[in-house]
Amino acid sequence: MIVRVLVAALAAICWASSNSAADDPPTYTVKQEEFIKYVSLTGNVEATQIVELRADFKHFTTLKVDRVIPDGTHVSVGDVVMWLDTKDFQRQYDLKRLDMEAARLTHEIAELEYRREMEAQQLELAQLRDRLEHLEADRRYYLDVEFPRQIESTQKSQEWQAAYLEDQREELRQLEQMYLEDELVEESEELVLRRTRRSVEQSEFYYEQSRESTRRQLEDILPREFKQREVTFVLEKARLENQIRVGESSQKRRQLQWQKTEMEFANTVRDFEEFAEEGNRLHVTAPASGTFVYGEFDRGALTGARKWRPRDTVNVDQIIGSIVTVGPRRIRADLPEDMSRVARPGQPAVTIPKANSTTHLPGTVQEIGAFPLPSGGFDCAVALVDPDLSLLLAPGSKCDVKIRVLENPQAITVPSKAIFSDDGFNSYVYLKTDRGPERRSVRTGLSENEKTLVENGLHVGDVVLLEKPK
Question: Is 82 a member of any domain?
Fold first, then answer.
């Protein structure tokens, strides 16, 4: 009986233990292991030496294609790639030639008129300069000779008048003295005395007038005249100098106008000559040696490709095609923005051509764009380790690229399903402990092959739950 009870108890314990083990979630023991993160991209092969071929004609807006070499033709420097129709050019050339002859005659007439105007202006300026020189010479003569002589003449006239009066007075005194000594004065002598006295009175009167006139001349009239002549000189000099400046400015302005006319005529001649020269070479030549391809390349992708046919219209500066020269190739791809923080130039990469998926070509990240592309992501350029092998890749073809952005031989990783997050930002795991599941915050890194790199929060030997505990 006791044995049966013991057996039943042991069976119950084993059953409970087995049920408890079955209810525990799966776990993972944390350990150090190698962690490698790859970024897979798809890009285009880009030739690093491509020359765009343009219809760089200056004097034509549109042209018609006569013929063009086939797409993929190898060309050398100077080889003709496209021939253009010359019929429209000949019609335009005949009209422009007549316009050129008319412009030449107009220029000759304008030159004759300009030279005549220059001669007339030169004569007018010479006359104005002569008048100014004469004006200054007259002023110097007035200041140095005429004005001092006027003062001297006025002063001398006054002195001579005084001397003449003094002589007459002396003569009268002597006559009176002589006649007074005679007791009898004859009638004729009396007449002489009267005349002499009257002459002296007149001289005294005129002397007083002369003295007042001299004073007025020296103090009023001559200074007033001097000042008036100075004002007249300054005004006339200013007028002449202004006329000279205006004449010189007019002459300079006319010279500048003529220089402009000559430049415009020279431009007209040059444009006509360039038009004629372009018309004589209405074809597009290869500026470099390489393979001629219709269209243009943008980050390795061939865009704008078209097949040229006779009578097609070519617009000025339109890209006709591209010449792919012999040189290294590289891969241009779009790097996702979330990978731009870990991708760096110099990281190893593997290039797998779409045309031959069994070929793996080693390479390195050459450069990463500093700013996002309009379509999203960052520009990423991958160069092959062996430049000679890159020549096997056709420009514009597709390639897959795997970039090794991280390699850590002693990384702490856990299965990605062991990482939980409630808000999409803060991550945590559940540790298995003797007290039961314990929640712990962790800082995670990159993920690869269902493994996530744990940068902080876990240690080797920790056991984490792969499911949330119930």
Answer: no
